[in-house]
Amino acid sequence: MMLLCLGPASENDTSGTFGKLLDFEPIQFEPVGRQYEVRFNCRGQKDSTAESDNDEEEDTEIVVEETPEEVKYLRGLDPKEWKQQDHYHVLGLQNRRFYATEREIKAAFRRKVLSHHPDKRAAMGEKVDNIDTDYFSCITRAHDLLSNPKLRRSYDSVDATFDDSVPIVSEENKANFFAVFTPVFERNARWSIKPHAPPLGGPEATQDEVNEFYNFWYDFKSWREYSYLDEEDKEKGENRDERRWIERENRVQREKLRKDETKRILQLVDNAMKCDPRIKKFKDEAKRAKEEAKKRHLDEARAKQLAEEAERRQQEEAARLEREQEEMAEKAAREKEKKARDALKQEQKLQKKQFESMCAEAGNFAEIGSAEFVKNLERVDQIVRVLPLEDLTKINEEMHAKTAISERRAVFDKAVSTLEELLEREKMKTLQGAMKGTNINGGPAGSSGPANSKGWSQEEMNLLVKAVNLFPAGTTDRWEVVAQYIAQHSGRGVKLNAKDVLNKAKEMQKFGLGNRQDGGSCTANLRPARTGDETIAGVHQEKLSSISEIARAWSNEEQKLLEQALKTYPASLGAERWVKIASVLPNRSKKECMKRYKDLVETVKAKKAAIAASAAATAAKS
Fold first, then answer.
1. pTM, whole model, 2 decimals?
2. Which fold has domain 554-622?
3. 64-162: what CATH class?
4. Among 218, 338, 342, 362, which residue carries the largest CB count within 10 Å?
5. Which residue has the higher pLDDT, 132 or 414?
6. Phi, psi at residue 470, to the nearest 5°?
């Protein structure tokens, strides 16, 4: 292929591209022919001549004159102790040593041969007795060892001139860290299998560079070995077993020296780290960064906590305001309800007082102290307690409009009829609900009756009344005992619990004739009202204005209940004792129980006094 190259363009010429050359295709060729052979031979002779000239020039450069001290050192060598000699010193390379090249070793040996070969010395008139014992054999030994890379490495590993010292940890070495430790690491880097050991660096080295340096030295791989120090040559063994034993002993010694070398390098690195000011600087920076991060974290946490507390306070304040508004609204509603309730109570109290006053003015429409008088007092009390306010108000208006006692008696009889009709309706409703399995409000029987779908029968309600009389208040597990009694005697096989029985007793008492609201008064409320025969004839006139103040005779049953209650509730209970005793007696108040107790005490005392007086009179007569 021919490539046409044009000359440079002048000022008036223009340049342009009209196409491109095709890619060159590589071809293989073999140089042959007589002309090529002649050319090749001529070129080879020139190169050989140039190389020989260069070798002579280099040899001339490294050849130095021997000093009398060096000649004296060589002549004093003992061929038998060749292993203890300094081979570099023998060849005159004591200043180069490990760094001497093969060319330098070869040139040094050539120089020594020219000066100390036995033939050269004999030609100069020196007498050489035995070549084998001549010191020249030491020069030959040194050359043979240093020319062999493996043997030279073995010798370099134990070079006596190498400084194996490790700088200690001291304030002086810390102050002059780089000046002290840099040359130590540089000379120990020669043992590294990996080339290009990282330098120690300076004060401005980055943390990555420092970490790389120490990681390299902590993972240092050394080629240093100690076969040159073998005490015995295994080739001297007479048989295979002896040679193996020698080799094993040599390996043990080498391994020991290798471990010592590893410890030395690690000690060097540890001491360097302890003295390195950069490590302390990095640690201080890391500590400072950690403290800053911790402080930042605490600040963020504190800010978050403050924000949460502020939000919580806002929510609490909003909740408080809302709660206050609700409480104010509830309070206003309660006050309004209380006012309405108080007004209703006041109105009820007024109507009650008015009705009782008008009845009292009419002498309760019966002769004072008679049975009818007591009956009317009870009716008046029931009317003012049971009838609704509208009915009571209407009755008062009608009675107030009447002036004659007979007319007012008619209004009173009408009120009694209304009361009896109301009580009868409520009783019938209760009984019908119990028979149908529904409560008084029309709900399921399970809400207030026994736990079954059939409700309470009339027989079971009679048994309930009887059981309450048999097991008065104060009986242990009273309502469980009552439930068991009803289950045993009903014959239906229905299993009742204490809660069902108590609820039913309260329900029956609620619409009875009694004025107490607890289940314990159920039987009293279910019994017929007391007649005037049970009253005391000599009742004071001023105590007849209220039904609660009327003195009534105590029946045998009430007397037994009182005695049992006095035993059940001891005097140690204090004022609460009479409240609990009154709860046992359905139709007796706390005041009546206390008065009855005092009367009994006085009766017993009077009886004892009478007996004592009678005994004294009898004794006097005798």
1. 0.41
2. Arc Repressor Mutant, subunit A (1.10.10)
3. mainly alpha
4. 362
5. 414
6. -75, -35
